Amino acid sequence: MRKIGILGGTFNPIHNGHIHIGKEALKALALDEVIFVPTGRPRHKLNDAALLNGNLRYRMVSLAIQGHNNFDLSDYEINKEGFSFTYETLKYFNEIYKDSQLYFISGADCLINIYKWKNVADIFKRATLVVFNRPGFSKDDIIAQKKKVEEEFNTKIIFLDIKPLEISSTDIRKAIKDHDEIQDIIPMSVMKFIKENNLYESQE
């Protein structure tokens, strides 16, 4: 049975931390591939003026994963009408990869705020949730929440205890606006694309 990782996010913009997570998940979980899924219209960021058009974010992810074996990209949420919900995205991939095991890869903030997500039980039926630690979250809190959610939904959650890279898309956008250097934290191809298209420079 093939093992497919689904790595969602706004990728606004994608950076080396996202690539690092994808690589670590491939190795730790022995995945056949990791599919990056840029969000379309997430409800929790509906009024976020800094969220770029989905096609631009999709293009940046495409550039970032070039040359990385076992990485793929989906435009499902970008092209989907209406809001983006994880349970619907997983249903879509269940239908494509009928004979595969799906692993939905997300940050610790997803687990901590899991009760705010729509149709949580359906998410656990469709994929194994994999959470990685992020700066600002206590490992003890993550483990405690993991145990609580596992018991409540009769599921198994994988905690990917990797060393996170101290990189934030928010900080990158600010650095671009301030004309600071970002070449050490973002793929060169993405940085070039951002500069050529004057992205983020005028955003608050």
TrEMBL record:
It holds the Pfam family CTP_transf_like. Residues 6-174 form the Cytidyltransferase-like domain. It comes from Clostridium cadaveris. Catalyzes the reversible adenylation of nicotinate mononucleotide (NaMN) to nicotinic acid adenine dinucleotide (NaAD). Belongs to the NadD family. NCBIfam families: cyt_tran_rel, nicotinate (nicotinamide) nucleotide adenylyltransferase, PRK00071.1-3. It catalyses: nicotinate beta-D-ribonucleotide + ATP + H(+) = deamido-NAD(+) + diphosphate. Its EC number is 2.7.7.18. This is Probable nicotinate-nucleotide adenylyltransferase. GO terms for molecular function: ATP binding; nicotinate-nucleotide adenylyltransferase activity. SUPFAM superfamilies: Nucleotidylyl transferase. GO terms for biological process: NAD+ biosynthetic process. It is an enzyme of class 2 (transferase). Keywords: ATP-binding, NAD, Nucleotide-binding, Nucleotidyltransferase, Pyridine nucleotide biosynthesis, Transferase. It comes from the Bacteria. Pathway: Cofactor biosynthesis; NAD(+) biosynthesis; deamido-NAD(+) from nicotinate D-ribonucleotide: step 1/1.
